[in-house]
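In practice, a research group might receive sequence data for several interacting partners and want a quick structural hypothesis before committing to experiments. The following worked case mirrors that situation: the sequences arrive first, and a predicted assembly follows.
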Amino acid sequence: MRDRFGLGWRAKLALGILSNLDRIDIVEVIADDYFRAPHRERRALRTLGAQTPVTLHGVSLGMASSVLVETKRLDEMARLCDEVSPVSWSEHLAFVRGGGIEIGHLAAPPRSAATVDGAIANLRRARKIVGVAPQVENVATLIDPPGSDRDEATWVSEIILHSDSDLLLDLHNLHANSINFNFDPVDYITRIPPERIGAIHLAGGKWIGRPDARRLLDDHLHDVPDPVYQLLEKVGACATRPLTVILERDGNFPPIEWLLEQLDRARRAVARGRTRRSAVAA
Amino acid sequence: MNDSRLETFLAGIYVDPGARAKFLANPRGEATRAGLTAQQVEDVIKIDRDGLELLADSLERKRHGRK
Amino acid sequence: MNPFDLPGPQFLLIYIIFAGLVISGLVFARRRAELSPSTARIDLSDPYLIAFLRGGEKEVLRVATVTLIQRGLLVRDGKQIQRAENASPNSVRIPVEQALLKKYARSGKISWMFEDEGLSLACEPYARTLQRARLLPDDYVHRGRLVRLVIAIFLLTGVGFTRVMIALDAGRTNVGLLIVLIVASLVIAAAISFPRLTETGKAMIFDVQTLYGGLRHPVSSINAGPASATSAGGAGVEPMMLAAVFGVGALAGSGFSFADGLFRGQDKRRSNSCASDGDCGSSCSTSSSSCSGGSSCGGGGCGGCGGS
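A structural hypothesis for the assembly, expressed as tokens:
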């Protein structure tokens, strides 16, 4: 199987995506948009799946919590997967609720033995209920979660190595975290088991905060910055399996041609990385 | 149990302005009141306050659909 | 108890129920036979193909007319249109557009396009494509429909006229109402037996309208500038696709005031009908999740994976 490059499915991009399937290998659909949608809307995803491979991306399970994900939430994902038959599904190494409080977005949990164990248990249950293990994505964070006793690369690796889930490596999240918390993203990549990197997300963001306390925010509203393509090339050089690379854009949409050019740029970056890897192997 | 208490505590100060204000005014007291372990209390009182405010603001914007 | 021996009013009631069951069975059997288990694959980026699916050749012609006017290749003058001075059939590549420009080399009524054989021929490839995908009925599907209708006719007339014969044999001539019921049930059975689309075709329209739901929000933001023939899925193509998927009427409120009333009275069917059998797809939005209690994501996307 070869590397695949695709876009996040967004209503505003529908025409652009469906008109350019010769340049798009796969689309990623936000699963939560369809959990409570009428059957008719979920059936439309099957029609989309007949046009191009579809992968489902969940955002509300909260897999990396020390608390077990509720079965009914996993059942929702299972039902959607049954109806849509995606080529894969994914979720985040995040927590999204606690003590009945809904955070409303993906938050980085404390990186501790408890959340490692919790994530592994949740991923095991998810695999059992949905039928296939999800890929899991590293999240961006504006705050280094208190209660952490290990760094992110260690924490992510522990979860990956003790579960059946491969990593969906979000390179802009990695880039943002590395800047916000001063660590080397290349070192992070080298510490992830290369055979467990299954997919990549690319996105953009913006700076927020006071000039003396700026943080890079991953907002999916901006173009992919150059450093992320450089990281992508590095991943292309070390990943041993075919990659699924998804460009995420949630708003502030440029013309579709602009997004497709970014996707082509990603293709070239991965190809350069693969070439370097082959040259080293030879 | 304590690990879930930490997540609950963090969720609270991330999304509830009142809880966050109380915490910032009396970090050790609020963390202790939440039933966190001694180590967790020590970790939490060292929280990155700039990051906390940015995160809280970002979550607020998301909830109200603002960019 | 032999139902044929029931008193007249009671038999009429039984016959109405029987006819209802036969007609329901006819509909159920047709839907079951025509709903394909596998998902059809057609070119969802072709607005004319989608327009044909939704409303046949007349919808194709409406969409093509609006597109050519938008591109300045056709000019509207009240209820007439004419090819623009600088335009020729060679200005376009799509056969139905070429045929329209040929047809309106001189000014002519808009309504003429719906009676033109050449334009009809230009739309045939769309019909063939959709038949191959089993979204429109092909010969095999037609045969199946005919067989089911014949069976229904046999049942409805067999039961009804058996009773008529028994009544006449007994010297009773008040069979008029029963005959009316028999004829009415036959008419209804025939009317529901040959919808323009197969069940899969109907489902496909709903799916297409779901997938393209984002085109409608908001209509006013659609670029009414010249459509670029080369930009696949670009902003200039959006109005065309909006009209194809939801009807020319969906352009109201955008920068397409020239389309208002363009086809009013030109054809019995409304320009924004979804299918000739009156079924209309939903105008539902899609991929626009509300951030309900279970979802951590903003509408239509993650809004940033964490930390935002």
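Before designing any experiment, note the following. Chain B is about 80% helix and 0% strand. The mean pLDDT of chain B is 91.
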